[in-house]
Each structure stands twice: as structure tokens, then as C-alpha cells.
Amino acid sequence: MSLSVAPTQAVIGEPEVVEDVRSVESSVAWRRLKEAATALQALQARNGSIPDATHHPAARRHVETLVGSIEVLAPLFPHDAAYLETLPRDFSRWVDGGFAEPDFLDSLVTFQPQQHRVDGTRHLVVFPMYTQNGSSNRHVEALLVEAIWPDFIAELEAGDYGNALFVSLRLIDFTPGYDTNSAVLFPETVAMREIPQFTWGAIFQDREAARYRRVVAAAAETTKLTLPAEAAAMLADQDLAERTFVMWDMIHDRTHMRGDLPFDPFMIKQRMPFFLYTLEELRCDLTAFREAVRIQTALDARVAEGEELTAVEEDTRRHAGLVQYAVLFDRIFRFPITGTRVRNYDGLGGQLLFAWLHRARVIEWRDVELSVDWSRVPEAVIELSDAINQLYWESIDRPKTVHWLQAYALVSSVVAPNPASVWAEGLPREVLAGPPKGYTDLVMDDEFPLSMFFEALDKKIRPVIESTAGIRATPA
Predict the structure, then answer these.
(1) Were both Cys, which of 41, 119, 379, 419 would link to 139 (CB 3.0–4.6 Å)?
(2) What percent of the chain has pLDDT over 90?
(3) Checking DSSP bridges between strand 201-204 and strand 166-174, what pairing results, if any?
(4) Buried b / exposed e across 315-335, counting CB within 10 Å, b at 16+?
């Protein structure tokens, strides 16, 4: 089958040229591409194949429409020319192979968004892929996205916070796999015959910022927390929140392979107790927090000495302060009550941060009202960061399972474990003497249940949490 479909066949009765990349989402070509991809999803099995031959004629028609629409839209994305030229060939091979499990490696390796980190640059993205925190099916998904790359971020990345793999994006439009909680675009989710060396990873800061604004506003109102003026300003301004999340995520992302690590903290796909992932994700967030404190402190000192900052430095200074609020409030309000209670490592990280600050009396819950001693927040958060960093530093000299036990000791010293926990009681001697699998098997799905505070908060703002699935950013 040839998929060299003329653009006029894909967009019958409509202009075959879309002239402005800023209007792609309202074009007939994009609408038909999106509809064709969505129709293919209904025919695909979990691995992306279409095993039922009776569906193949319809699938061919959908692919023809999809490829024709890509050809119409491709001239608007000259920076992605190699990718958009290769993409139809991958679709053609999928069709000619009888719609077996798709392989889009060739087009994946030609898609290099990290090479075009210019604010507002758009990309058309089409792949068979699963969506993290969204759909586990490797179905054909289509996205329109654009880069978020303000000047102060470019300057930070070019300086002490280099991260050549980090891509910051805004969702413009998308197929159903992203009408979910997914806020990332990772190359490893694409259906392909072999795993290449990945050179980029993308996060949709607009979605992160939008759900942050909605959830934190509801949580602050529910708990009667009085927010500082700058924190309140971020809740009222989508653009401000997006730029703040870019700064947070850029520092977080680069931290995964920096610092005193117990070799590779994730051990590359190795099964391990979920609280290890809790500590790694929290370590990276708290590093972003402490670096934001360092940046803000240094710039504040220059201002105190009478120095006039450049516009970019003023932006950096303001957003460094906002990153601290973002890390704090996203972690203590949204993370603990988002998702299920099945090995929810991000949720546990939020519980750990809240409990740490409460025990330090930085956060108080009194007279049915939440209060924060803002002057002590940086010191207390950095103390938790230091505790995790110390655990990591010591662990290079320990067996893996001893590292696991010490990590559990740190978490359980702050967050109460499940009363039925075998880990809390003490693992049996035969498990301690056995392989790591025995340790992991005895971790409960909800090893660290929600505290009474979070149970109550969950009941009050559950509808708000649920409303953020598939959220689209709205301007202030």
C-alpha cells in the first residue's frame, strides 16, 4: 500500500495549505488528523497492534487521512522536517506489516525537540505510545505543543544549571491519551523495536501549573491558610506559574544523576520498594528548593548592597522565591491525595515533607486552621534535604538491602507506617537472609496510610483533584 496521499485527498473541499502555525489547532488538517488518530485508538490492542483483520480496511483509511494531514501541516514545522518526513514511512511500514505491533524507532530518533528550545516554537507530535499517569496502551496519539523557554531560564541553563536533555512544553491540543493526568512526553513510551540512547525528555509545565493553581487555591481556602502575597500572585497568574514550574523542573530533572548517589538511584527498571522512589523524587525536589534559596539569597544580597539587577536577573530572583512556594504547596497539598493508595511514591513524599515540617513546628494545625512560620521554612526544608543526602552518601558503602532498610527507617521515623506492616514489625530472618525480592514482596501497597489531616483534606477537595485530569491551562 502506498501512503503518498496528496494533501487535497486528506482535506477534501478545504484549502490545502495552512499558512499560520499559530492557527494550526483550528485548521481542518489538524482536526482530521486528530479524529483519525482517535479512531485508530478504538481499533488498537494494548500493544498498539490491530489484530482483528476485519478492522484493517478502516484502519488503512484512518492512516491515509492521518498521513495526508501530516503532509499538509509539515511545512509549518521546518525545524522538524526530518521527523515529519520519516513519520509517514513508519506508518506505511506498520500498514504493510498487517498492523502488527508498531515500530516507530526511525521517526523517534529524528525528533529532537531539545535542539529547538526557543520560546513559542511549536511541534506536531504523532506516535504510538503510552502516556505516563494516563493510558498504559501504546495507541496512536497526536499532540500540538509549544516550547516555554523564557530568557531567565535560558540564562540559568547556560550557566550553573545546564540540562541539555530538558524540554519544557505547553499543550495546545491533544488526543485522548492526554485527556488524563499525564503531564510528560518521554521517548521511552513510544512503540519501537529497540531502545536507543534517549536525548530528551519533555514536561508540560502548563498542565502542572494549572492543576497546582486549582488544587492549592482550594486547599488554602479549605485549611484557612493565609498565603504570602507572592504565593497568592502565582495562583492568580498562569504564565507566572508556568515559568516557575519550568525553573523547578529543570533543576529537579538534572539532579537525578548528580550528588552523592547510591550508584544509580533508580537502578534502571529494577523492582524495589516504592519508598525508594519516594526519596529520590523528593531529593530532587528539595534540591530544586535549596538551589532556589541559594539563587534568591545571592541576588537579594546584591540588591542590599545597592547593585541594580538586569531585567533577566530580576526575573530569576522573583521566580527563585516562587519555586520555594511551588515545591512546598504542591508537595504538601496536591501530591498526598492525588492518585491511588497503591505504592504511591509521590504521595508519600508529600506526606513526608508535611510531617517533617509539622514535627519541626514550622507548620501548625490549630483551631481548625493551618499556619506556617514562613521565616523557618527554608531551614527546615533544607534539613530534610540534608537527611536524604546523608542517607545517599552513606549507602555507597552498604549492601542494597541495607540501604533499603535504612531508607525505611528514615521515612518511618517521620510518617507512621501501616499497623499491619511487616517492615515496621521487623522482617523475618529468612527474608533478611534471602534475595531482595523477598523484601519487596512484603511491602504493603499502602505501607504509609494517610494521616487524619490528609484523610479529611481528601474528602473536602476530592472533586477539585478529580477535575484536574486533562486540565487545560487558562490565562489569568
Answers:
(1) 41
(2) 89
(3) parallel
(4) bbbbbbbbbbbbbbbbbbbbb
Q: What angle do CA 241, 351, 386 make, to 5 degrees?
A: 85
Spatial contact of 124 and 73, defined as CB atoms under 8 Å apart? yes
For 158, the grid coordinates are 547556560
Q: How far is CA 407 from CA 199, 262, 339, 436, in A?
A: 31, 12, 23, 14
DSSP label at 332? I
Quick one: pLDDT at residue 4? 38
Rounded Cα–Cα distance for residues 76 and 21 (Å): 6
Which pLDDT value is given to residue 5?
37
| Alpha-carbon span 44 to 413, nearest angstrom | 47
Task: Report if pTM > 0.85.
Answer: yes
Distance in angstroms (rounded) separating the CA atoms of residues 357 and 332: 10
**Structural domain boundaries in the chain:** 7-199, 207-467
Amino acid at 230: E
Which of 152, 143, 105 has the alpha carbon at shortest distance from 122? Answer: 143
Q: Using CA of residue 442, residue 136, residue 256, residue 208, what is the dihedral sign?
A: negative
- Separation CA 47–CA 70 (nearest Å): 23
What SS3 class is residue 128?
Answer: strand
Q: Which residues pair with 124 in a beta bridge?
A: 144
pLDDT over 90 at 11, yes or no:
no
Cell numbers that stand for 54 in this block: 476485519
Q: Which three cell numbers stand for residue 450?
A: 494517610
**E strand or H helix that includes residue 163:** none
- Identify the residue with better confidence: 12 or 292: 292
Return d(Cα 420, Cα 196) in angstroms, integer: 43
Q: Which residues pair with 173 in a beta bridge?
A: 144
Residue 389, C-alpha cell as written in the block? 543526602
Give the dihedral sign, CA 105/109/111/117: positive
Q: What is the pLDDT of residues 142-174, one digit of tens each?
A: 999 999 999 999 999 999 999 999 999 999 999
CA-angle at 185, arms to 179 and 187, nearest 5°? 135
Average pLDDT over residues 353-366: 98
Res. 268: pLDDT tops 90: no
- Please write the tens of the pLDDT for every residue from 77-123: 999 999 999 999 999 999 999 999 999 999 999 999 999 999 999 99
Instruction: Spell out the residues 6+ positions from residue 225 whose beta carbon is closer than 8 angstroms to its own.
Output: 219, 369, 370, 371, 372
With b for 16 or more beta-carbon neighbours within 10 A and e for fewer, the 84-95 pattern comes to bebbbebbbebb
Strand partners, 127: 141
Please report where in the chains the cell 504509609 appears, as a residue.
Answer: 448
Q: Which residues pair with 364 in a beta bridge?
A: 371
